[in-house]
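Weekly structure sync - notes
Attendees: PM, LS, DV (DV joined late)
Agenda: review two folding runs queued last week.

Item 1: First target. Sequence and structure tokens pasted below for the record.
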Amino acid sequence: MKMIFLSIMMLLSVLILASCKKQDIKLTPLASLLVTNAVSGGGNLVLGTNAVPVYNNNFQTYGMLTGSREVKLLDTAVGINKVYYNQTKDFVNGGMYSLFLGGTPAAVESVFIKEENIPSHTADVFGARVINLVTGGAPISVNVQGSPNGSFVNSLAHKAISTFKDISSLAAEGDKVFEFRNAATGDLITSFTVPGYDLPRFRNITLVFAGSVDNESIIRTNNY
């Protein structure tokens, strides 16, 4: 009887040790890709087999397997398969990437970047930057309404992108109006309002200056 009891105790000990053994969990290495579709007159785009499209004048974030991967964006409307972008890019585990598409369906332009300096914020501020995707336009400057011309971005050429800068997000200050100007003359081209009720506190946005000369538009992309 004693031997049976000892045998049972030994078996229970083995089971307990086995259950306590550390389980190795293998995680799939992933990166993220933020796509902004600012193609003038363009359609909604699909990325590979992803069910969620990138709507025109909007953005979408996708998870990407690491390594060398094809990034192919198609307009599949009315049965066509027009390629807007098709390049192979290298993605690293945990990497954050952004792809901005501008121009027209007949001449799509792109800017692909690996995000290295997306800031974090611990005060009542948000980060903002600007990318210039207006083909054939003059370099632009940007200021927040009430500040001197060019105080936010002094001069930004076509397909150039600024660094993130801090903007106060105190509720009492209300809307933040960004004024886009001809960098050489200071003439106002257009403006974009980030409303006080939707300030991206503690976060970051990119203002995409897109369209064509005399028909410019601005798209807000959230880099949360």
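Item 2: Second target, run right after the first with the same settings.
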Amino acid sequence: MDVTKTAAVISGESEPEMGWTLPAYQERSRRQRDRLMKAGERVFAESGFWQAHVADIAKRAGCSVGSFYRRFQDKEAFFFALQSDMAAHAEANIVKFFTDPACRTEPLMDVFRRLTRNSARTMKGIEGYYRALFELSLRGRDVWPLMRRVEMIEAAQVVDLLRARGIDMDPGKQDAAHLAIRMMHGQIVSNILHGPGPYSIDDPRLHEELALMLVRYLGLEDVATV
């Protein structure tokens, strides 16, 4: 499904505000903004959101504090700009994964195994974002709309794939797929923030168990190996 069309299934969600960051018109300015984004994610991973300082982010990015404030109003504005970038990349990666022709031909268990492995690897690479996300949420900030959007897009892609493979998917399966994706993401985030439970995030056994969870919860045991 086209990502624009898929996003339309999300009811009650407003588009994210785009006023968090000043536009980067020149290539040099865009590169510096990207360096700040990468540096901020790493600083959040090491220190958390509240203990991170703008000066630390700027220093790691190799720029001045003034350069930071020319692009972002403050540290929270920086986080929401980072979140917007992360969500855009996540949506693009989801569509890329499900448009891979292998998803239509290889056994579903293999598809879900790849999905969970790719999700774990990608999410581990931005652990600072997730740490900041939860810290802000615990202080009452409304940080979840984009995360719910990504979940629902991924769930819609799962449902579309199963229908394309000739599997009957009644309307209630959309909600079931959404919950299954949330459970998968939740386990991965828990692993990132709290450590193995019981498997590490790189352990193939974790990916296997999460793939089995998707198969069983969606009632696909009879078709998972074909």
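Discussion on item 2: Residues 1-19 have pLDDT under 50 and may be disordered.
Action: LS to circulate a short write-up before next sync.
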